[in-house]
Design goal:
This is Flagellar hook-basal body complex protein FliE. Keywords: Bacterial flagellum, Cell projection, Cilium, Flagellum. This protein is an all-alpha fold. The chain has one domain (about 25-100). The protein contains 3 helices and no strands. α2 packs antiparallel against α3. The N and C termini lie far apart (about 55 Å).
Length: about 100
């Protein structure tokens, strides 16, 4: 089974895919677009977690599941969750930096 290196960053890449936030959008439209994109990305991370849990439970119950599939699903879930946490940390850092600015 080939491991596609691009799969682990799917959730993160969806933040930039095809969502053109141009100057033509109103702030409300841009905010809604960003919120929808963020929701989609978080849902994908959740899907990877659920798929990993499902395969792990099937393996534990003795169903015919290949061990490497379970391990790959677990790694995908772990990598996407870690990337999401890192992005969250960067956003919080940026917010705190903005709040420290004097006007």
């Amino acid at each position: 089974m080939a491991i596609n290196a691009a799969n682990f960053s799917t959730a993160v890449q969806s933040l930039n895919s095809g969502k053109d936030i141009s100057n033509k959008q109103t702030p409300i439209e841009a905010q809604k677009s960003f919120a929808n994109t963020l929701k989609e990305a978080i849902n994908k991370v959740n899907d990877y977690q659920m798929q990993s849990d499902k395969l792990t439970n099937r393996l534990i119950q003795g169903d015919h599941v290949e061990l490497h599939e379970v391990m790959i699903a677990a790694q995908k879930a772990s990598i996407t969750l870690n990337a999401t946490v890192e992005i969250r940390n960067k956003v919080i850092e940026a917010y705190q930096e903005i709040m420290r600015m004097t006007v």
